[in-house]
Specification:
This protein is about 50% helix and about 10% strand. Helix 1 packs across helix 2 and helix 1 runs parallel beside helix 4.
Length: about 180
């Protein structure tokens, strides 16, 4: 294990639980940013590797809809538009490539399920924890992807500019 985190999305309350698929999908943005940072911080061979070749990433999750969006590289909502652009641009900027997905029942996800529900995970090495919650740039990016906020699709060029600016700040800040 390289790292782990637990992140509470900065979204409005989803009282009817209508946006579970979007929550599952957008967690890939958090994971990719965390993985990019971890690889940068490790330095040496890992940083060199990320500069010169693709690194395969396997996404494992319990939500088949989010998994299909990842596999198809598309999602048809405003939240999905921005999140998909972010995931795609993260792959271009970081050399991390989502090359495989796997479905696993939530109850069989072990500590991953615990982290997503903010339960204690004493079995994990605390030194590998990455605080993503305090990342203001990530929080701002994810607020743009909030599906609870009523908004129409954005012109693709405008959306891409927003995502690009946010990701450049997040990926290349001196955190």
């Amino acid at each position: 294990m390289l790292a782990y985190t637990s992140y509470k999305l900065p979204w409005a309350r989803d009282l009817k639980n209508k946006f579970q698929n979007q929550r599952e999908y957008v967690r890939l943005v958090v994971a990719m940013i965390m993985l990019h940072r971890v690889c940068q911080r490790r330095g040496g061979d890992m940083s060199e590797l990320l500069r010169h070749q693709s690194v395969a990433v396997k996404f494992t999750g319990d939500n088949t809809t989010a998994q299909s969006w990842i596999e198809k590289h598309k999602c048809s909502s405003r939240c999905g538009q921005l999140a998909c652009m972010a995931i795609t641009w993260l792959q271009v900027q970081s050399q991390l490539r989502i090359e495989d997905t796997e479905h696993k029942e939530g109850l069989k996800m072990g500590f991953v399920d615990d982290l997503s529900r903010f339960r204690a995970t004493p079995q994990l090495d605390a030194s590998l924890y990455v605080d993503m919650q305090s990342d203001e740039g990530l929080t701002a990016l994810l607020r743009q992807c909030d599906p609870v906020v009523e908004a129409d699709l954005i012109d693709h060029h405008t959306a891409f500019k927003q995502i690009n600016e946010a990701l450049l700040t997040i990926l290349y800040s001196t955190r």
